[in-house]
Each structure stands twice: as structure tokens, then as C-alpha cells.
Amino acid sequence: MNLAPLSAARRRFTLVYPRHSSGRPFSSCRRYCTGLYLNQCGEDGFSSGMAYHLRRNMEPLFVKGKVDLVLWGHEHSYERIHPVVNGTVVGRTTDHPGAPINLVLGMGGADNSYMSGWIKPAPAWVAHREMTYGHGRITLVSATELHFEYVATDGVVHDEFYLNKTE
């Protein structure tokens, strides 16, 4: 992944949507997730499952490239992860967070009969998680502010944050 062309002079926010070579979102592969599903999130510990391999191999690239928001797919739930590096929360703010904010955006398939629940208790890096149908909405408020909302099918905003990147 070459993030060099995305110089700070040409961009304000960097969003990444990892895709498999087939063009589909990574199937059941997120760096941080807490759904109980075939050990993809590493239910039996932090150092196993596909999420572990993504943290180990992709996270350094995202941090070095100053990625702001990583949008993961497929797992049939919604999760927002605090800015985190190698499992350590580096801040609970979205104001110059210092590490990417990870979102699992699989709410379109929220009636997930094969996901047996959540890892409990929730790890410290979980900001919000739920298994309801809905969609994400990103609004660029200004050149320095991005607004994200998770909207459930009832039309109610269940989670939101503002990402601020002033100089």
C-alpha cells in the first residue's frame, strides 16, 4: 500500500476501505472487532484470528500514512473503535486522534444468526458496538471537520462523532 501520493498538502482526511483482490471487502477481517464469529476477531485471545494478522501487517502502514478512518466491512454489526495502536488506546478523543479510528460497517446484515454475541467484557478500545440494521453517513462539515453518524433503520442516530484535523 503506497500512501506517499497522499501528501498533506493535497488532502485533509485519509479514509481507507480495505478490499480483497477480488474487489469485495475483506471478508470477516477487521483489525479490531469483538463479534463472536469463527474466531475471526480472535475470540480466544488477542494474538490469534485474522484480526491479529491485519493488526500486525497493516496497522503500521495506516499509522505511518496518518490514516484517519478505516472502514471495514462484512461482519454483520456496527463497531467504533477508539484510536488505538497494537491494542493500546492512544486517546478517547476524535480531535487530532493520533491513530486511525476503525469502524466495522456491516449493519446491512445485522440479523446475524451465525454471530453468537460479543466478546465480554468489551475491550477498552471499544467505543460503541451494536447489532442492529442501519447505515453510516459521512458529512464533510468543513475543510477541517468530518462528521460520522451511525443511523439505525428507525431513523435514530445511535452513534456519532466529529473528527477534527486543524493545523
What do these coordinates show?
The strands form 3 sheets. A 5-stranded mixed beta sheet has the order 1-2-6-3-7, with no helix packed on it. About 5% of the residues have low confidence. The chain is globular and about 40 Å long. The protein has one domain. The longest helix has 16 residues. 10% of the residues lie in helices and 29% in strands. 31% of the residues are buried. The two termini are 26 Å apart. It has 167 residues and is mainly beta. Strand 4 and strand 5 form a beta hairpin.
Q: How helix-rich are the residues, as a percent range?
A: under 10%
Number of domains: 1
Order of H and E elements: EHEEEEEEEEE
- The average pLDDT score comes to 76
Unreliable parts: 23-30
SS element count, helices? 1
Question: How are the secondary structure elements laid out?
Answer:
Blueprint: E1 15-16, H1 49-64, E2 69-72, E3 78-81, E4 84-85, E5 88-89, E6 101-105, E7 126-130, E8 134-142, E9 145-152, E10 157-164
Parallel strand pairs: 1-2, 2-6
Antiparallel strand pairs: 3-6, 3-7, 4-5, 8-9, 9-10
